[in-house]
Amino acid sequence: MKQMKRIGTALAIAPMLLILAACGGGGSGSGAAKPTVTPAATAAETNPAYVKAQEMFETNRCISCHGVNLEGRAGPKTNLQKVGSTFSKEQIANQIKNGGGGMPGYKSKLSDEEVSLLTDWLSSKK
């Protein structure tokens, strides 16, 4: 009985050992496949200011019209996925502050610093 238990344990461990052995070493000329490298996160995804701007975008109900992925939910004018290649920073800041075209203004709800953070983040969308 003990021997059967050991064989069962060995059979369970063997595949894990094979997987671990396949991951090891493999210097040049060994014929081992190179590991797949996933690209690093973009600067925009890791920039703390952009992270904060995205959080502000979500908490100020911007997503109700512009969508979670900036795809626009209230018509084509609300799509912001490439807003940085269409409008200057000044135009984006003006739109956030003063609104227009169906968008409410946020100058009484957001500080100048918050508008600046959102403007920088949105202008990076190209």
TrEMBL record:
Q: Which domain of life is it from?
A: Bacteria
Signal sequence region: 1-21
Q: Spell out the InterPro entries in the cross-references.
A: Cyt_c-like_dom, Cyt_c-like_dom_sf, Cyt_c_BACSU-c550-type, Cytochrome_c550/c551-like
Gene3D superfamilies in the record: Cytochrome c-like domain
* PROSITE patterns (alphabetical): CYTC (PS51007), PROKAR_LIPOPROTEIN (PS51257)
Q: What Pfam families does the record point to?
A: Cytochrome_CBB3
Keyword list (alphabetical) reads:
Electron transport, Heme, Iron, Metal-binding, Signal, Transport
Cytochrome c domain spans which residues?
48-126
Listed PANTHER family: CYTOCHROME C-553-LIKE, MENAQUINOL-CYTOCHROME C REDUCTASE CYTOCHROME B_C SUBUNIT
Q: What is this protein called?
A: C-type cytochrome
> What transmembrane ranges does the database entry give?
none
